[in-house]
Amino acid sequence: MKNKILSLVFAGIFVFILLAGLTAAVDLFEMNQVSAPTSISNDAGSFDVVFNIKYNGVLPSITVDLSSIVSTGTGIVTFSDGPSDITLTPGVAKEVTATITFNSGQTGSIAGTITATPSSGDTKNLPFSAELTVPVPDWRDDFCVYDEGINGNPGDLRVSIGSPTVTGFGDDNQWLPFDSVEVEVEVSNRGDDDVDNIEVEWGLYDEQADEWVIEVDREDDIDLSDGDEETLAFTLTIDDKMDIDLEDLDDGDHYVLYVRATGEVDNDDNNDSCATDREDIEIVIERDFAMLQDIQTPEVVQCGGTFDFAADVWNIGSRNQDEITVEIFNNDLGINQIIDVGDLDSFDSKKIHAQFIVPKDAEEKSYYLNMEVHDEDENVYVNDFNDDESIANVLFNVDGGCSTSGLTQEDVSLDANLVSGGEAGQPLVIKATVTNSGDKTATLVIGAAGFGGWASGSIASPDTLTLDSGESADVLLTLNVNDDAVSGDNVFNIEVVSQGELVAEQPVSVTITGKSSGGLGNIFGDNSFIWIFVIVDIILIAIIIMVALRVSKK
User: Fold this and answer.
1) Taking residues 360-377, what's their average pLDDT?
2) CA distance 150 to 273
3) What is the β-pairing status of strands 272-283 and 174-175?
4) For residue range 512-550, what is the model confidence (pLDDT) as tens digits?
5) CA 493/CA 487 separation, integer angstroms
6) Backbone angles phi and psi of 300, in degrees to 5
7) Residue 375 CA to chain centroid, in angstroms?
């Protein structure tokens, strides 16, 4: 009996030792992480650490006190169950969420420890750490970061897009196909350091189609000292040379003009700096509109020369067009041609050609060649955007080979006859008959030239004639023959001038009788013949008297 009691005692001691060992092998309180971020955007403002806590003992329940500390960065930890005291029953895990709230814009990391202290069991610590990352914005909101660009502006650059200057049918921020747009961009340095090698880039983007209409292009680099500014200009054209087809343009205001300036700050850090600006753009697509593009004309044409004209006719409307024509005209030059273009599909084009002769008698000056694009009803196309007509004008010059009077040498004829004179020292009078054989009324100035060796001057009476087509008139030309003119044939020219241009010239030959070289002629001067006549008469009277005296003596 005594042996049995001792056996039972030893058995109880063994069971007790065994149960104590099992209890020691089991952790009465557990704390395990479920999820936690290792990095978080510094503008997120908060992140969560999720963990489980569990009691494995034999007591009916225990309480757990939760606490925390943020050791790196600035933040506050709150728990999902609100109060820090949590009741646990054996074998039942409880999930707890700790929310770490921090101020946006911090850099580095947010780190700390969550501590769970149970009423029975060992205290557990759960560390957390999240790296704060600087988010890269969408380049559509910040063009500076486009294509691995710069996110930051330590140099304090500023970029400003000015009001576009539109050549074509659009204006301001509303553009039509084939508009040429000049854009001015002001770049300024508001910082305290110089910024060097500033690269200005721009592009036109379609937000709806999510594609570049005109890919990003680059302008010249500039340097800006602190406080300086500079204005640059670039030109873009809404034409068939863009990075998308013209037919892919949609009507609407979903286009954006982006500009950015990127440079290097001239200080110890040598950081890159970028500033950007954007402008919303509307592309206007008409329903029915055709226009001329790529007009090719010579800058200068001679009178009587051929004027070559070429151009592209574009249907820039959303609908197909039928029976398009182009009228080319200039009333001063008598030009009026109509070119049949035919039918054109939407955003299709056709090249046209024309030639005309510049009149021989055109005035040498600048002229406009006028061009109108007509629809099937022979009306000039008018757009709905601002009621502009499809009209173009090209300036060209007429220069060279022109008869400004409208007359040629074949249009004026002369006939000359001697009226009186022909002696040295005496007036010489020639009658010239002038005839206008042209087809226009002309004002003519008549004069003499080429007599410098034998006459001292000339007078035309009248000196100006206005003759209708086919009309003739006489002019008396008087030349003052020099006293010392040599006897013989001499030549001079009768000239006819119209509007400063010599249109007719007639050589005239006249015979001049010179004065004798000695004798009585030199003694008596201009009245020598009269004196000779008187002397001869005296001699004859003396002879008659002498004969009469002899007869009377006999």
Assistant:
1) 94
2) 7
3) parallel
4) 887 755 444 444 444 555 545 556 567 777 777 775 666
5) 19
6) -135, 135
7) 29
Q: How far apart are CA 166 and CA 405, in angstroms?
A: 43
Radius of gyration of the chain, Cα coordinates, nearest whole angstrom: 56
- The three-state secondary structure class of 34 is strand
Longest dimension (CA), the chain: 247
> With DSSP H G I counted as helix, E B as strand and the rest as coil, what are the percentages for the chain, rounded to 5?
10, 55, 35
pLDDT in tens, 372-421: 999 999 999 999 999 999 999 999 999 987 865 666 667 888 888 888 88
522 is written with which tokens?
């030199």
* Secondary structure of 53-76 as H, E, C letters: EEECCCCCCEEEEEEEEEEECCEE
Instruction: Give which of 36, 50, 83, 91 is closest to 64, Cα–Cα.
Output: 83
Using one digit for the tens of pLDDT, what is the confidence trace for 299-357? 999 998 999 999 999 999 999 999 999 999 999 999 999 999 999 999 999 999 999 99
- Which segment of 236-245, 257-266, 469-478 scores lowest on mean pLDDT? 469-478
Q: What percent of the chain has pLDDT over 90?
A: 62
Where are the extended beta strands (E) located within 6-105?
29-35, 39-41, 46-55, 62-72, 75-79, 85-88, 94-102
Q: What pLDDT, on the 0 to 100 scale, is given for residue 217?
A: 95
d(C-alpha 514, C-alpha 470), whole Å: 40
How far apart CA 334 and CA 336 sit, in angstroms, is 7
**Which residue type occupies 251?**
D
Please state, in angstroms and rounded to a whole number, the distance separating the CA atoms of residues 466 and 513: 36
Closest CA to 191 of 126, 138, 269: 269
pLDDT at 424: 85
**Alpha carbon distance 13, 451 (integer Å):** 164
The burial class, CB within 10 Å (0-12 / 13-18 / 19+), for 1 is exposed
DSSP character string of 308-341: EEEEEEEE-SSS-EEEEEEEEEETTTTEEEEEEE
Question: Environment class of residue 446 by beta-carbon count within 10 Å: exposed (0-12), middle (13-18) or buried (19+)?
Answer: buried
Match 């209708």 to its residue by tokens. Answer: 468
CA distance 477 to 416: 10
Check the CA dihedral 313-319-321-326 and report its sign.
Answer: negative
**Integer distance in angstroms from the first to the last C-alpha of the chain?**
247
